[in-house]
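Re: Re: ligand-bound prediction request (bumping)

Still looking for help on this. To restate: I need the protein modeled with zinc ion bound, output as structure tokens. Inputs repeated here so nobody has to scroll up.
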Amino acid sequence: MIIRKAYKFRFDPTEEQKAQLAVEFGCARFVWNHALNLRQCVYANCIDENGKGENINYVGLNKHLTFLKGTENFGWLKNATAGMLTQKLIDLDKAYDNFFKGRAKFPKFKKKGHSESIRYQLDQRNILSTYSAGEFIKLPKLGFINVRWSQLPFGTPKMATVSKTASGKYFVSFACEIEQAPKPKTSRVIGVDVGIKDVVVTSDGFQSGSPKFTYQHQRELRREQRKLSKKTKGSNGWKKQRLVVARVHEKIANCRKDFLHKLTTKLVSENDVICLEDLNVKGMLSNRKLSKAVADIGIFEFNRQIKYKAQWYGKQVIVIDRWFPSTKMCSSCGSIKQIKLSERIYRCDCGLVLDRDLNAAINIKSAVLKAA
Ligand SMILES: [Zn+2]
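Reply:
Sorry for the wait, this slipped through. Here it is.
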């Protein structure tokens, strides 16, 4: 199966590259805002042959951009990569298209200081076939960039997106098309109970734990937010502290993502069939106490990852009816009883004594096997 995979890496630009990137981001923002404004003006003031407001697309806007570059006032636009600016106009076309088809809100003007991003069509001659020596990809006007490889990308990158976060970090991502080989078959079927104490407990007794370190970072976050609130808004100290807060936010998000990726990859690698319960996550989110924990662990994200990874690797995810009483049922004799959230152990009159989540995971597996 051919899949598109995006790889994102942090990179460390040199001072010269930072300066050039500031030019690229600035010009990109100008071109986006200028083109958006122009499109709105033309739409409001010019009527096409059908009596509707006229739309100019990137072809017309690109001609206008070439004209601007030739003028004295806007000649500085030539300092940015031409292809990248054209790409911004194509992106604006897409944003309009998404708006007309009801998939997105109307495109917004970009403000300075928010996260910025630009895209390059890659010249295949500027991509080396080897990742060694830190030299892999050359970007226009920037040269080789020093990428912090966390893994090696597969496939041929066709586009590169360079972005800068509000906290001042630089990232590059490549969109690659690759042929995905399925993971080896293991003939194993597993039931997965998704919960709070452990993100998952499986029917074979594996307990994932939960990313507790986010709690530690959360204390750090509260501390730094308190410091921020004490500073005068707009002052230098405030600006600095705002960066610190943004970095802690990033740390928390990264920890959580990393935890979930490792977990979902493990589950699809080790099993052929993964049985899940269709959690009424909305219902869980309406319970205040639980909602914080659920949002924290990212049960939505777990479900999303396990489904797409199963598809990638030729595995199967089976979701059972959410009203199935997985927690209340004894996995040995099938009798049903009420169990409080605080009860960690399931005890049955038949003699079964089992961790409640493990009992639920076994029930989920049996339900799928019975239905098959
Ligand atoms: Zn029983």
